Amino acid sequence: MAAPAIGSLEVLTDSFTGPNDDAFEALGPTTLLDIIQACFHARASEWIFLRELRVGTGFRNSAAQRLDAFALNCFAHTSMKRVCYEVKTSRADFLCEIKQPLKRRIGLRYSNEFYFVTPAGLLNTSEIPIECGLVEVGTYCRITVPAPWRDTPGPTWQFVAGMLRNQQKSFQGTPVKQPNQQRLPFND
User: Fold this and answer.
1) Is residue 167 in some structural domain?
2) Does any domain span residue 185?
């Protein structure tokens, strides 16, 4: 059962008509995270929203483990809700992720809810793993598949240190370093 639409995105209303439209490509990871933050985590007094969060302070085998976005609710009456977001802008990227379930293990470990974030129409709801949810962004930002709530243990000190380091960089105005990944263009 799909949840109701959460917020209208007037900026995209005129330009987004479906998955084959040019606006579909314009919804890059940064734009999708901007929309998620504005629709679900806009109250800065309630939510801490972290992007490109590197888990821990060291490098494991020279590779940093990163979460695309992590939101922490600061109110005790919400059980300090933790939500992890994994952005997918292509079907190939999503299918690769599904073949490697250990990749999302860290996000599932530290969050109460785990969501894939995609442009609208990119995925079928039946493709979403049972432990995950789906947020689609198009004319509306909508939770298409609600993520199940998981009671998870609190964060480790390494994770807390990674969160504080991420926040410190944003307060200093230092942009968070993007991962060493890039989208390769296909030539026709």
Assistant:
1) yes
2) no
Query: 110: which DSSP letter?
Result: H
User: 115 with 85: CB under 8 angstroms?
Assistant: yes
177 occurs within a structural domain: no
Contact in structure between 116 and 134 (CB atoms under 8 Å) = yes
Q: Would you say residue 78 lies in a domain?
A: yes
Of the two residues 130 and 165, the one the predictor is more confident about is 130
Cα 55 to the center of its chain, rounded Å: 14
The count of domains in the chain is 1
Give the range of the structural domain holding residue 58, as residue numbers without chain letter. 5-171
By three-state DSSP, how is residue 31 classified?
A: helix
What is the chain's length? 188
Where do the H-state alpha helices sit in 8-148?
Answer: 10-13, 22-26, 29-40, 91-99, 105-110
Summarised one tens digit per residue, pLDDT across range 37-85 is: 999 999 988 999 989 888 766 655 545 578 999 999 988 888 889 999 9
pTM exceeds cut of 0.85: no
Q: Helix H segments across 29-104?
A: 29-40, 91-99
d(CA 137, CA 143): 9
Contact between 114 and 86 under an 8 Å Cβ cutoff? The reply is yes
What are 41's two structure tokens?
Answer: 């985590």
C-alpha torsion 156→160→163→165, nearest 10 = -120
